[in-house]
Amino acid sequence: GIPVRTTLHNSTTIQYAGLLHQPTMKARSMVQDIDPQNDDLTFLRIRSKKHEIMVAPDKDYLLIIIQNPCE
Amino acid sequence: LGHPEIFPLVFTTKTQEIFNCRVDEDVTEENCFKLIKKEDIIQDLKTRAAISDFHPVKRVVVEYPGEELLVVFDAKFHYGQNFYLVASEEAKENILKPPETAEEKEEKEEENREGTPEVHPYKPPVHKPWVSLGSEKEVEEESVKETVPKITYMISRAQGKFGAPITFTDRNASQVEDSYIECSSYQDKTFSIKMLEKDVGVQIIPKVKEASTQTKWPYPKNAATQYFPRQLSSEEKEESLSSMKLKEFLTSVHLRMEIALQQNEIMNAFFDDWKALAEDESCSGSKPNVHLKAYQSFTDLHYLKKRTIGCVCWHPAIYGIVAVSARERLYEEHVNLPDRSLLQQSVIFFLSLFDPIHPQLILECPEDIYCFQFSPSDPNIIAGGCINGQVALWDISQHEEKLQNAKTVPDGIKVTAVNTVNASVLNVLQYICPSLIQVQQTNTEPPLERYSALSSIQYSHKKTVTDIHWLPDYFEDNRTGAPLENKAEICVQLVTCSPDCSILFWDIPATKLPQQYSSEKTEEEDIFRMPSDVPHTSKHLDLCWKPLIKINLCESGINTEYGPVRISLKELHYHYKISEKVQSLDVLQLLSKDSPSTEMSISSSKTLKVLGSISTGFFVGTEVTPVFFIPLGQKHPQKYTIHTESIHTLQRSPFFKDIILSIGGQHFAIWKEGVTNGPILQSSCSTGRNTAGHWSLTRPGVFFIGRDDGNIDIWDLLKKTYEPAHLQNISNSMISFISPWIASPMQHFLAVSDDLGVLHVLEICQTLNYPLRNE
Q1: Can you list the GO cellular component terms from the UniProt entry (chain B) (predicted)?
Q2: Which residue range(s) make up the domain with A20?
Q3: What is the pTM of this model?
Q4: What CATH number labels B304-333+343-403+444-498+502-509+535-552?
Q5: Does ipTM top 0.85?
Q6: How many CB pairs under 8 A join A and B?
Q7: Do A47 and B270 touch (CB under 8 A)?
């Protein structure tokens, strides 16, 4: 995906945008395979040791938030 | 009646008398059986012929096979008369015997009624006489009987041939005609059965067909290559940002995202309780492990004889290099003044952890250096403050390589050799020559580096420079006094303070700024070469260096002056719109003496202005110790009297920008900016004097305090706030300086210098290194 608006450093943004598009598509197609009529991906959360990445997909756009989960 | 052998009879009394079966005398209801001999009955029949009671059963009696007949008294007239005759032996037996057993069984049954009321007593099957229903005829027809008597042949061989040997041969029966007769099956044309219904099993399987294809793939070829990521131009970005679609998307999506963020805020779903438990356990149960391991100890007989270490600083870039400044011991300072010329030259020398004996580098100082700092942007520049108030600068760029190689060649290398020999050859030398030879070949003297700039005595401090700090690279005071952003991102300014009540801002002369750290060394060497003898290019800077701004802290009314001893720099975060980096502006914090009211007069004609929305303030801590915070715009500071003696350490916590630790005398206190009524933590009077202190670099709640008896107190604010968490004795004399350093993620060092001139390098154990969760 092409970043439109970001609060991170440019290179990080591009990396996240490029890498997250594919898993989101994959997750969406998976959800639609399971229940073709009714289901669609609403939210994707990936948790790693250091960060939590949250993706909210839409037809044309993706909203990506990267958060540090440890309070 | 179903019982063809039972013949009811009427017995007259006469008959009863004859046969001794009188009712109620011989036979009773219970004892109803009477066996009468057959002969008697026949006799009776003959004598009384027609009137005999046995007349109707005469034939039966005559035909009766047995000797005795059973006559049963039928009290209840079961069979119609009061007696009955049993006509067959078997029936007689059965009647005689089973009723007995039945009676017994009935008795037993009554006993067992509670237990098994349902169990029927076993009655063996009673033989009944076979009643012919016409099946005999069928059996007769079907049975096979021989109708014709069999003809028997006897065949025997002639007598003579008995016992003779015989040969057997095979003969195929089918070849000889008439040797066998068969009845072969043939299809009978007159006979046919039509199968109207047939059970057949059916299974459905998919039709499977195998097919294969093969494509030709000569070699992999990139269809397309992307060298840089696609990006939208700014107009396109603007356009898409303002489009309706984006607005709709954001409205639809933002709720979900908010929920997720809230969830994250509320709790950490993946919190590993077991792991957290282990961390707590390892901390709580490991009291004996909390200690500082002595890693190395340095002392130098040459330069540190009868001297103490004034200040210790780790080299920020090179692992294992620590710089130490030597100075007179405090109590000796005034005594030995006349002997000063005889004493050795004041130096700062560099020690390497790998070479505890020889200093790696020695910097020559005009006077004893009280404190010094490496420049944060270029570790080759060192600024130091002397005890006579001057400020000196050193540039050790040309020794940088040597310091780095100190790691691989612990015995030290000649200075000249370094600059001319390649690093690879150096390594070869190292491996080939034994270390002993190398020692002989090297200089016994480590290289000496002279200061490259020295401030003018006239404009320096009048008293000892007690604290010196580099201003961070994005902050530059210019002549007008307003803080400016420094775009060059290198440290160019110093601030010093001294008990002569002034704070000076120094600007490093432009010619001295190296462009990049050790990459343009050749260029620099052209500009200002530093042979070990005379700095000829920067000679003009000697004794001419002037401070940029001078701030006098003096009190207007009572005329007492402040003697600032320590400066602490504060960082304010201020976001610039253009650059992406978060820029901070420093705020000077000075510690100043107490006095009811103060006024700051600034020697330069301009007052320090406030840049935009940044407020700068001063935190001042002085000889007599109250701690002040003076915001720059105002003139009225707030003062706090906590420490009874001079403060010697004022430091911001590396984790919280507004928490300041001040240590002095017998107290220490932790302050928070904005909290104006006092320190947030204040220690009680401790028995000894605290002489040095430092925050821990990795754990927010830990700091080290050195005492005058050579002990180090490790305070862990999360464990106990009333006493140190751990005490350790390092040396016999007073601790003069503490400096922690993170050399590698596993090794954290604490350099502790004491009054005897010994530098102890201690390794901080892991419990003191790794912060606990949520610390």
Answers
A1: inner dynein arm
A2: 10-67
A3: 0.45
A4: 2.130.10.10
A5: no
A6: 57
A7: yes
